[in-house]
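pls ignore typos typing on phone
coenzyme F420 + seq
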Amino acid sequence: MPITGEYVPSPTSHAATQVAEYEASGGARNNTMRGKPVVILTTVGAKSGKVRKTPLMRVEHDGVYAVVASLGGAPQHPVWYHNVVAHPQVELQDGAEKHDYVAREVTGDEKALWWERSVAAWPDYAEYQKKTDREIPVLVLERA
Ligand SMILES: C[C@H](OP(=O)(O)OC[C@@H](O)[C@@H](O)[C@@H](O)Cn1c2nc(=O)[nH]c(=O)c-2cc2ccc(O)cc21)C(=O)N[C@@H](CCC(=O)N[C@@H](CCC(=O)O)C(=O)O)C(=O)O
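k done
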């Protein structure tokens, strides 16, 4: 079910700009970070109910995606993580394709597998985890 409601762009200008250009070009422009592919996650605000869109590194395996709430290894989770926990029905745009997904946080062996896939896609995740005592959450997104 597509997410509807008032879209409020990120206050982080580079993120808001990346979302705008990515969406306006059907995923053809501003779709990478240092040459690696980026996806756009659409969530519903946990408190505001507003529509939020967040550029994230692309982690995918057999049509299943993972999103990594790294925030560069900051001590706190990114705000979008709380949105996904509160409203697991999300949308993800990967290039020209945008679909509905249901997100769930993974733990244990499943998290270890997806963490390996995440670091393979974006090696900096390993550095981020070394920077913080916070365990960086990984959420798996399966087609709704
Ligand atoms: C600044 C803040 O952003 P955030 O949700 O914490 O997300 C921070 C970053 O993760 C976000 O900027 C990412 O896009 C950064 N980022 C990545 N961040 C990651 O965590 N992982 C990545 O893999 C990643 C890749 C990436 C690639 C390209 C790029 O340009 C950015 C990338 C924000 O949007 N705050 C809003 C609130 C947003 C919000 O969702 N509010 C909720 C409240 C939620 C609550 O407080 O419970 C609501 O509306 O109800 C505000 O202050 O108005």
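The helical segments are 13-24, 79-86, 108-121, 124-131. The longest helix spans residues 108-121. more later
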